[in-house]
Amino acid sequence: MSTLTAPSTIANHPPTAELQARDAAHHMHPFTANADLAAKGARIIVRADGVRLTDSDGAEMIDAMAGLWCVNIGYGRNELAEAAARQMRELPYYNTFFQTSHVPAIALAEKLAALAPGDLNHVFFASGGSEANDTNIRLVRHYWARKGKPEKRVIISRRLGYHGSSMGSASLGGMAAMHAQGGMPIPDIVHIDPPYWYLEGGDMTPEDFGIARARQLEAKIAELGADRVGAFIAEPVQGAGGVIIPPESYWPEIKRICAEHDILLIADEVITGFGRLGHWFGSEAYGIQPHIMTIAKGLSSGYAPIGGSIVCDEVAEVIGGDEFNHGYTYSGHPVAAAVALENLRILEEERIIDRVRTDTAPYLAQAWATLADHPLVGEAVSRGMMASMALTPDKGARARFASEPGTVGQICRDRCFANNLVMRHVADRMIIAPPLVITPADIDAVISRARKALDEAHAIVTERGLMQAAA
Ligand code: PXG
User: What is the 163 CA–ligand 1 centroid distance (Å)?
Assistant: First the structure.
């Protein structure tokens, strides 16, 4: 494995305080209260290697989030830098709109068709997951219109689903805080409840609850009429919603319902694709054969912005019958495509996904599960290289905190950061999705830092009187 050479310890950048001030003056951060951030200053990441980040003060952190769920092969792979440089010299840009094509887009589309399950053989490129899901909305509606069923335009999605931040993709998403800003969801997108057993399963067994939540799809189709419903979109495992792992009963029932009612199934594989669940795609882990898959993130391991929709033969054939008035300047960008190809080569040749399935995911599963004995933790679960734990004031009751959701999660997350561990919180659930190349020794380091952070968070939460269950 060749890695980028880390610079010496001599800082090659201005001091942290100056960078923070300049950042605060001009840079609007996504999903951030910018005034609050300006007051405390952003943590500035200057370089990374393997699973570790270095900040502008020289502190080293384990990045258990793989950036934003994307750096599957880890940081510092020189081969991807070389592939980008080579492609920039050869052909830095060309488009594929007006009867032209280029080698990287051709090779990448062909490679993806070979990797994707079943007859998912056609790729429409985008620059990321949000764009790809906007493409999917238009693909679904245009597909049914061309089949003489223009009224089959409703897309069903799920609360706590995350499908992106553009108007279309955020409408598909089920995040109330996003819908509250800017007039979403757009028309003809409706939501059902997620298979979130821990917080919402009540007295049901996980298996019964999985069936019940899947049948909400059937009930929603019945309510709207199958002649109005075009597609159902879901992440195989919900990521940004808090790493919500569905009960085993859930996906087989969803599969049955989509087939019986002639509804297209879109698997949003932006997080679960490219090895995160120990298979090339999460759909394979759950035995699903979707009509469309959304991809991004791990496609290039985050080294270049690229995403897309992998489409089955039938949908591609129907769409291909006339002009699809849709596309992005950077659809199939040659540099991003070349980087993605090199990333796929590394994933394949180094058998990284096999190793996740047979070695590191089982190792993570048992190590992570040990955290469940902590007094602050209600459950600690994982699937592949995605793991989450519920923080709770009352383990036996799977209770929520009385405080505003996210109060305790934020305290725990801050203690993780202070212990040089990048772990996220979603409300009062802690989540990780490390690079797929993480070793057992680094998993041990994640667990020991997490335990220390939990101890510290527990002390703070107790001292502030926050170990109170919601009524
Ligand atoms: N689908 C899924 C399943 C995602 O996780 C997108 C689509 C959108 O992709 P782009 O490339 O447009 O961002 C995502 C992105 C979080 C967080 O808070 C997650 C994402 C993005 C930003 C924040 O965990 N996932």
Answer: 6
| Ligand 1 centroid to residue 8 C-alpha, Å | 34
pLDDT at position 4 is: 55
pTM: 0.97
Tokens read off for 16: 């942290």
The Cα–Cα gap between 151 and 170 comes to 22
Ligand 1, residues at Cβ distance < 6 Å:
68, 128-130, 133, 162-164, 235, 239-240, 268, 270-271, 294, 296, 307
Ligand 1 centroid – CA 273 distance (Å):
13
Mutational test site, ligand 1, from 31, 65, 68, max ligand atoms within 8 Å of CB:
68
Q: Copy the structure tokens of residue 288.
A: 């699903």
For 102-131, the pLDDT digits (tens) are 999 999 999 999 999 999 999 999 999 999
Compute the radius of gyration of the chain from its Cα atoms.
22
Dihedral angle sign, alpha carbons of residues 248, 379, 208, 172:
negative
φ, ψ at 305 (rounded to 5°): -75, 115
Domains annotated on the chain, with CATH: 16-76+352-463 (3.90.1150.10), 79-349 (3.40.640.10)
What pLDDT score was predicted for residue 202? Answer: 96
Contact 334, 102 (CB under 8 A): yes
- Listed as ranges, residues in the chain with pLDDT below 50 are 1-2, 8
Nearest alpha-carbon partner for 45 in 36, 34, 53: 53
* Phi and psi angles of residue 92, each rounded to the nearest 5 degrees, phi first: -70, -30
- The confidence score (pLDDT) of residue 2 equals 47
Q: Tell me whether the omega of the peptide bond preceding residue 150 falls within 30 degrees of 0, making it cis.
A: no
Atom of ligand 1 nearest to the CA of 164: 8
Instruction: Name the residue at shortest CA distance from atom 24 of ligand 1.
Output: 240
* Distance of alpha carbon 401 from alpha carbon 392, whole angstroms: 6
Q: How many angstroms separate the CA atoms of 295 and 266, rounded?
A: 11
Question: What is the structure's pLDDT at 304?
Answer: 98
CA distance 148 to 344: 39
Can you tell me which residue has the tokens 């009963």?
Answer: 249
Distance (Å, whole) CA 287 – CA 234: 14
Q: Print burial letters for 133-163: b (CB count within 10 Å at least 16), e (below 16).
A: bbbbbbbbbbbbebeeeeebbbbbbbbbbbb
| Long-range Cβ contacts of 201-206 (<8 Å, 24+ apart) | 206/247, 206/249
For ligand 1, mutation pick of 68, 162, 293 (most atoms within 8 Å of CB): 162
- 102 with 333: CB under 8 angstroms? no
Contact 55, 46 (CB under 8 A): yes
